[in-house]
Structures are given as C-alpha cells and as structure tokens.
Amino acid sequence: MSKGRKPQMPGNMGNMMKQVQQMQKNMEKMQSEIEEQEFEATAGGGAIRVVANGKKEITAIELKEEIVDPDDIEMLQDLIMVAVNDAIKAAEKAMSEAMGSMTSGLKMPGLF
C-alpha cells in the first residue's frame, strides 16, 4: 500500500458504512428534534395538566383550583402521578417510534 492512500473496503462494505454513517446522522437529528418537542397529558378530567419534553423532563404542571381539596391530598397526588407518567410515556413512545422508523428499512446481514 502506498503512503497517503486510504485502504479500500471490499465490495459493498464501503457503501454499507456510508449508509450507517448517514443513518447515524439522521438518528441524531431526529433525537434532537424530539427532545425539543413537548408532550402533554391530563388527569382528573383535565383538572391536572402535565407537560414533558422529549428528554423526559417535566416542564410544566398546572392544577385547576377545584381539584385542590385539603381533605383529599392523596387523590391529588395520585392524579399528578398519572399525568406525569402519561406525559413521560408519550415522550418515550415518540422517541421509540422515530428510532424504529429509522431502522425498519435497514438490511445489513449479520447485524440486524
């Protein structure tokens, strides 16, 4: 091999590596876009609203005044947990679906 020349990959391997690199770039872009999105969930007939971002961080919790009952704090806590978990699940589902769509058409013998 002469100096300054990169070794050539045999046959279709070079094309496959380019496809993998492009897919990786696309996945990183898609992941970044999803991380910036907001996912909303409600509980208690809309009395509690929770917003999470694609990083699964809670960015907002809103409570309607009528849901706050000092004699039933446990119900409020349960409704908040339901809404938070639903918002996080929505963010996870969006990420999972996006990544699944990226890899569904990939055909690499021995790898997938």
Folded structure, characterized:
With 112 residues, this protein is an alpha+beta fold. It has a 3-stranded antiparallel beta sheet with strand order 1-2-3. It has a domain at 27-97: Nucleoid-associated protein YbaB-like domain (Ybab, Chain: A, 2-Layer Sandwich), CATH 3.30.1310. A hairpin with a 4-residue loop joins strand 2 and strand 3. The chain contains 2 helices and 3 strands; from the N terminus they run αβββα. It is rod-shaped.
Number of strands: 3
At CATH's second level, what is the architecture of the domain at 27-97?
2-Layer Sandwich
The residue-averaged pLDDT reads 85
CATH fold-level assignment of the domain at 27-97:
Ybab, Chain: A
The helix-strand sequence is HEEEH
The end-to-end distance, rounded to whole angstroms, is 33 Å
CATH class of the domain at 27-97: Alpha Beta
Q: How is this structure best summarized?
A:
The protein is an alpha+beta fold and 112 residues long.
Using brief descriptors, characterize the structure shown.
112 residues; alpha+beta; three-stranded antiparallel sheet; rod-shaped
